[in-house]
Amino acid sequence: MQALHGKVALVTGASAPKGIGRAIAQRLAQDGAHVVVTDISGAIEGGMTTRAGLLDALAQDIITRGGSALALTLDVTSARDIAAVMEQVLARFGRLDILVNNAGSLAGSDNFLSTNAAQWTSSFEVNLLGPMMLSQAVIPEMRKLGGGRIINIGSTGSLGAEAGFGAYTAMKHGLVGLTKTLAAEFGPDGILCNTVCPGFIATDMHEAANTRLSQKQGMSVADIKQQRYANVALRDAGLPQDVANAVAFLAGPEAQYVTGINLPVTGGVPFGI
User: Fold this and answer.
1) Which residues neighbour 218 within 8 Å (Cβ) at sequence distance 6 or greater?
2) Is 257 a catalytic residue?
């Protein structure tokens, strides 16, 4: 029997074509879970492709491969959206076992003195408040089942600091605090909560950061990569599937005594200051 047979998982921020959320959804479906893939509405930045279209294609791909999936629009900063998604998930599947808080934002990732309160507020709402509200929504349902898994996607920015990513780093540190709080408070209910902390992963967001740094520093993207990966033991970025494998472990039966941890998926990158 598949490790997650009969389980229902909700993954946020799953639309990006080369994103961690997409890889997580595919891996959980492969392990037998019914997967609810979500993201905000609108077009992908710089293109005409809509996130809704990408989500529908992802769900259809999972179904074509023999899995089970449902695509829903979800703004993690909207209490109304969260309530609507929970209603649809419970109507369709009757339960929710796994929450993966993957949606993220790089708002406020720039020289500290050039950032503003609006950028930091946006970062807070997506990177920390959203996971908090979703966790509040799913925990009562997990309690009814006698347990569940909440997996927050942090970063090396959850463990250290890199210049130029102030708001993102601050919120990802906060996400670790949220993880540990949930692990401590809801462990008696059988609800396990952990953070997966990716390093340099070749996603759409990571490539956008490389492009921004190349423009800011007047260097080629190739030189930026060489510079950024110089201290990575494996000297390269990882793949979204590497993160998905870590999430699958924490969501599965082999992690039944693991809670409150930060699991680095970094290729051996130092955590900064």
Assistant:
1) none
2) no
